[in-house]
Amino acid sequence: MADKLKITLVKSTIGCVPKHKKIVEALGLRKVNHTVEQPDNAAIRGMIKQVGYLLKVEE
């Protein structure tokens, strides 16, 4: 596995489950098309799995 994951928010959180909005915020994403790099670990992978329909992930 890679050391870092490049995560981009590609869909708005408007109308999403409140828990999913908090997960996106915890990943460090603010606006649509905002990209962050996060470490590749089990916690981040679990968050991505929850809100994968909103994200684009590159290794």
UniProtKB/TrEMBL annotation:
<dbReference type="GO" id="GO:0003735">
    <property type="term" value="F:structural constituent of ribosome"/>
</dbReference>
<dbReference type="GO" id="GO:0006412">
    <property type="term" value="P:translation"/>
</dbReference>
<feature type="domain" description="Large ribosomal subunit protein uL30-like ferredoxin-like fold">
    <location>
        <begin position="5"/>
        <end position="54"/>
    </location>
</feature>
<dbReference type="Pfam" id="PF00327">
    <property type="entry name" value="Ribosomal_L30"/>
</dbReference>
<keyword id="KW-0689">Ribosomal protein</keyword>
<comment type="similarity">
    <text>Belongs to the universal ribosomal protein uL30 family.</text>
</comment>
<dbReference type="InterPro" id="IPR005996">
    <property type="entry name" value="Ribosomal_uL30_bac-type"/>
</dbReference>
<keyword id="KW-0687">Ribonucleoprotein</keyword>
<dbReference type="GO" id="GO:0022625">
    <property type="term" value="C:cytosolic large ribosomal subunit"/>
</dbReference>
<comment type="subunit">
    <text>Part of the 50S ribosomal subunit.</text>
</comment>
<dbReference type="InterPro" id="IPR036919">
    <property type="entry name" value="Ribo_uL30_ferredoxin-like_sf"/>
</dbReference>
<dbReference type="InterPro" id="IPR016082">
    <property type="entry name" value="Ribosomal_uL30_ferredoxin-like"/>
</dbReference>
<protein>
    <recommendedName>
        <fullName>Large ribosomal subunit protein uL30</fullName>
    </recommendedName>
</protein>
